[in-house]
Write a structure and sequence with these properties.
The complex is a heterodimer of chains A (about 180) and B (about 210).
Chain A (H helix, E strand, L loop, with lengths): L9 H14 L24 H23 L9 H8 L12 E3 L6 E3 L5 H22 L10 E4 L13 E4 L12
Parallel strand pairs in A: 3-4
Antiparallel strand pairs in A: 1-2
Chain B lengths: L7 H9 L3 H4 L22 H4 L18 E9 L3 H11 L4 H9 L4 H20 L8 E10 L3 E6 L5 E6 L2 E9 L11 H13 L8
Helix pairs in contact in B: 5-6
Classes of the chains: A mainly alpha (about 180), B alpha+beta (about 210).
């Protein structure tokens, strides 16, 4: 504890002297009182057992703090300009698709490597109706015959090739895409 | 609404008192720039009003003004940042190309924007005197922030976080005519030419 006594203002010096006198009455009273009395030993008096306990206690707390210190965290807020540069970079923008064509059958748009959506839904609806007919003919589950099935539309008769096959009849004109064998 | 008397003289007389140079004579701030005419919670319908502007009839010699159609959809349940990528994709395209791109995009907002474009196309043909529905291109396409709602999101161990359920608006402006040709990218030669031009146009200041 250092005490600087030399002060230019006389009233301050007098005040300090009075304070110093009150604190240490048996010290020599002069212009410059000596430095502070005895040196105080700082820190607690450590017993060997207490050292171990304190060191164990001390080891746990720093490890937690160390792990918290090592976590990655942003130091500065990213400005909107920096954010915009990242979000609007050409690699992040959506690419214009060049694989879109026109379906030759129906005229709708289709991707080159994918079936035309319109034609696919058309076929799907027709097959759903054929399946309904099959279900009605079979009458229940596990009644599928062990023979092939032929679908015949209005005005069609079974040929010689369709001898032993199951015939499903649909009450409409044959669609252009369903070719008859 | 009181009837507007026709003629440019009336309009000039109306605007003669509203000369901004006189207000700025003292050198202070422009006074009307500090006035807010609406709060943040009020709904803004400026885009819908843009369809209502009526231009004066064109003179015989002027080139034909192309038709402009403004359309928007509000409070779409999608993020404005994700919607922005779609809006950026179709900016400057013809309407057919934009519809094709959106049809085969996997994003949720693509379906919404496709509906908006089809609605706008139909509006153009019915109300805005557009002859061919394919003769339109997208002049502007923008997204805006809708109303957000904060909700609790429960995590494990009793922890929770606040999440925000975001909505967005989508604005589109269709203009009649073929799409404008894309700007050629700026080359180094163009930049050098501009720099030299800038150096040449320098003048001497504070001299005789």
């Amino acid at each position: 504890l250092l005490v600087l006594v030399r002060s230019p203002l006389p009233w301050l010096r007098a005040l300090l002297q009075r304070c110093w006198g009150r604190l240490e009455p048996d010290v020599f009273r002069g212009q410059s009182p000596p430095w502070g009395a005895a040196l105080a030993v700082q820190g607690p008096a450590l017993v060997p057992q207490e050292i171990n306990d304190s060191s164990e206690g001390g080891a746990e707390a720093p490890s937690l703090l160390d792990s918290v210190m090592w976590m990655a965290a942003p130091k500065q807020r990213r400005t909107i300009e920096v954010n915009r540069c990242r979000r609007r970079h050409p690699t992040k923008l959506m690419e214009v698709k060049r694989n879109i064509d026109v379906c030759p059958e129906c005229g709708n748009l289709k991707q080159k490597h994918v079936l035309c959506g319109y034609c696919y839904t058309k076929v799907k609806e027709e097959t759903q109706l054929i399946r309904v007919e099959i279900h009605r003919k079979e009458g229940g589950p596990f009644n599928a015959p062990a023979v092939e099935t032929v679908v015949l539309y209005e005005g069609e008769k079974p040929t010689e090739k369709d001898e032993g096959k199951r015939i499903i009849e649909r009450a409409r004109k044959r669609p252009s895409w369903f070719v008859q064998n | 609404l009181f009837p507007f008397p026709p003629g440019a003289a009336w309009a000039r007389g109306l605007l003669s008192w509203a000369r901004p140079e006189r207000w700025l004579a003292s050198g202070g701030l422009f006074p009307l720039s500090c006035i807010h005419t609406s709060t943040s919670l009020q709904k803004s319908v400026k885009w819908e009003k843009k369809n209502r502007i009526v231009y004066p009839p064109q003179l015989p010699g002027e080139p034909r003004r192309p038709a402009e159609i403004y359309h928007c959809r509000r409070e779409i349940k999608y993020s404005k940042d994700k919607m922005w990528y779609l809006a950026k994709l179709i900016k400057g395209m013809s309407i057919d190309q934009a519809l094709a791109q959106l049809q085969f995009s996997d994003k949720k907002g693509a379906k919404v924007i496709r509906e908006v474009l089809l609605e706008a196309q139909e509006m153009a043909v019915r109300k805005h005197n557009v002859e061919f529905k394919s003769n339109l291109h997208i002049a502007e396409s923008q997204t805006g922030r809708g109303r957000y709602v904060k909700r609790l999101r429960c995590h494990g161990k009793g922890m929770f976080g606040m999440m925000k359920i975001s909505r967005c608006h989508y604005f589109v402006k269709l203009v009649e005519g073929p799409p404008p040709p894309p700007e050629p990218p700026r080359t180094g030669f163009d930049q050098a030419k501009e720099y030299v031009q800038q150096l040449r146009s320098r003048t001497l200041v504070h001299t005789l």
